[in-house]
């Protein structure tokens, strides 16, 4: 399974929702604190192709996007596959 990383910022309700969704999937993930003005936030912007908002979720090198993107994938029944669930 590829590594799952989520860049977040304290106090962000969208980050809380995205983290809760990942936790509900029972997948291991790394949460990276990325407040504005930090190197971590710059890393998230670079990796996402320029998106300046948090959260930003990555599976390996692939950016899944933010909270709305995760929720949309979940509604479409595509999030498990995007997270690599069921792969060996």
UniProtKB/TrEMBL annotation:
Belongs to the glutaredoxin family. It comes from Acetobacter oryzoeni. This is Glutaredoxin. GO terms for cellular component: cytoplasm. Residues 33-52 are annotated as: Disordered. GO terms for biological process: cell redox homeostasis; cellular response to oxidative stress. PANTHER family: GLUTAREDOXIN 2, GLUTAREDOXIN-1-RELATED. NCBIfam families: GRX_bact. Pfam families: Glutaredoxin. Residues 4-63 form the Glutaredoxin domain. Keywords: Cytoplasm, Disulfide bond, Electron transport, Redox-active center, Transport. Has a glutathione-disulfide oxidoreductase activity in the presence of NADPH and glutathione reductase. Reduces low molecular weight disulfides and proteins. One of its GO terms (molecular function) is glutathione disulfide oxidoreductase activity.
């Amino acid at each position: 399974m590829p590594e799952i990383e989520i860049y977040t910022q304290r106090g962000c309700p969208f980050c809380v929702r995205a983290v809760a969704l990942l936790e509900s999937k029972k997948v291991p993930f790394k949460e990276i604190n990325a407040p504005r003005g930090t190197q971590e936030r710059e890393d998230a912007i670079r990796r996402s192709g320029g998106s300046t908002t948090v959260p930003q979720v990555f599976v390996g090198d692939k950016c899944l996007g933010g909270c709305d993107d995760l929720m949309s994938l979940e509604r479409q029944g595509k999030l498990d596959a995007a997270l690599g669930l069921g792969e060996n």
